[in-house]
Every structure is written in C-alpha cells, then in structure tokens.
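Researcher: For the record, we're logging two predictions in this thread. I'll number them. Prediction 1 follows.
Model: Prediction 1, sequence and structure:
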Amino acid sequence: MDLSQYPNFKRFSGRNILAVDFGTKVTGTATFCPGRDPFPLLCKNIIYQSDEDLIKEISELVTEEGIDVLILGLPLFTDGTESKMTQRVKEFAKLLSAKVAPTEFHLQDETLSSFEAEDRMKNSPEYNFKVNMKKIDMLAASIILEDFIKS
C-alpha cells in the first residue's frame, strides 16, 4: 500500500509517529515515519493494568522511539455516534496528552479497525491466513495509523 499520495504523508514526512489502539485488556501500538518506513510497523502490545501504568508505558515508548506525533484511536459507532467506550477513551486521551506534552497529539476515528485487522490476517500468508490474537491489537494500531495518514 502506497501512502505517499496522501496529504498527511507529506505533512508528517520525516516525523516519527506512534499509533495506539487502546484496550482494557491489551493495547496495541504501531510506528511509522513517512519517507523512511515503507509502511506502518507493528511495535508492541501493552497488557492493561491501569490507566496510570498504560500512560507510563506509552510515555516510555514516546521517549525510547523518539516519537514526534502520537495518534490515539477513538472508537465510534459506524454512524459516527459515541459510545461509553468513546467517553472512556476521551478521558484517557486528556491524561495521556498532558503526560506526553509537548508531543503532538491527535485522536483518530478507529471505527472497524479491529475487523479490518482480522480480515487482513485471514487473507494474508504472513499470518498463515489465520487471526493471530497476539498481533491483532498491533495490526489495528497500524490501521489507525494508515487511516490517519489518509485523512
């Protein structure tokens, strides 16, 4: 997939981006540097224990990876309306964005990113045409990152 044709590719060229797929069990992350990386790369899963622990782990990733831009997936219903989880993620976003400041911070609609991740796995020899639950959250994060670049 060639992302270089999208305006956000040029806008964020040469900047290290971290995408986060928030989860109350597992949070997936992916990184991408437009102009350097060929596509978003799976980074790591973080096992959820508390908001504080998750923020600490993400903050450490921001420092270790030299992240310039942080993208947090925002779960919405397919019609764009909000759920209880949307509100939960917005509250988390306030805490996270304050902790990683001055890193640029964005929320990105993540509607159907987990379904897209499952579909890609089922159709990819890389995943043996099977859903790999150990990587699904990271792949969802990479899809959130792709959607951000395309938006």
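Researcher: Logged. Prediction 2.
Model: Prediction 2, sequence and structure:
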Amino acid sequence: MKTVILSFTSLFLLWLLLSGYFKANLTIFGIISCTLVTYISIKLKIYSSHHERIKFNLRLPFYIPWLLKEITKSNLHVARCILDSNNRTQPQVVYSKPSQKTNTGLAVYANSITLTPGTISIDINDNEILVHALTNHTAQGIINGDIDKRVTKLESGIH
C-alpha cells in the first residue's frame, strides 16, 4: 500500500509540475488520471518496488547528458548525409542482442535507439531488437553496443 501511495503522489506531483494548472476542475482531472494510471499499473503487474525506481531514477542524470550528446552527433551526421549531393545513405536492418534484464531497461534501450536520428527500433523479441539504420555509420553504432552498455549500467542492481 505504501508503494501505491508513493507512486500516486509522485505521479500527481509530476503532473502538477508539467501541467502548470492549479484550477479545481483540471486538478480533479489530474487526480483521476493519476489514479487510473496507478490502478492500471497494479492490474498489469508492471509495478516495480519504489526502491528500485529510486535507484534507476538516481542514475538517469548521468545517462541523459550522454544520450543528448549522442542524439546531437547523430543528428549532425544524418543532416550531412541528407545535404550531401552524393547521398551517402545505405539503409539497412541490423539485429541487436540487448543485455538488459528488466522490461524497463529494454524499453529505455529501444527508445534510446529510436530517439537517436538515423536509427529506429522496429521490433523487440525476447533476445534481440530489430533496428533500421540509415547509414553504415549508424548501423555500426548499434553493432558496437555503446547504447546497450550505457543502459545496462543504468539498470544495474535493479532485478
């Protein structure tokens, strides 16, 4: 019960922070939506303990700047490919074997791939992710496993 209350409270505080509205009717809708999300999370059994989420969230500030740097670098690479008159794109599909142990880690990994320009996570199976890459360079980034290693480090200790 403590986990449910803490989760609802943190969701509602985040909702207040992001919405910026403090009118009664909108606040009621915020309470209803946070209650619904909490209820659905419990019913779908996708609830991890509060302790695990805290550990994960404390590591995020170290991951997000690295991801933003990678997004920027990849964005510049893709822009060069598009603006280059020789059209250096080599679209391809590659498989990545994720080393994440949790669904949260796997979701963060697949979303990080998709957020990085030039790559899109197409499909996720139990032991591999199908990724579309725009160029050999972006495909090599997936094959090298830099994002995979970073996300595995992010989720370490959460099982």
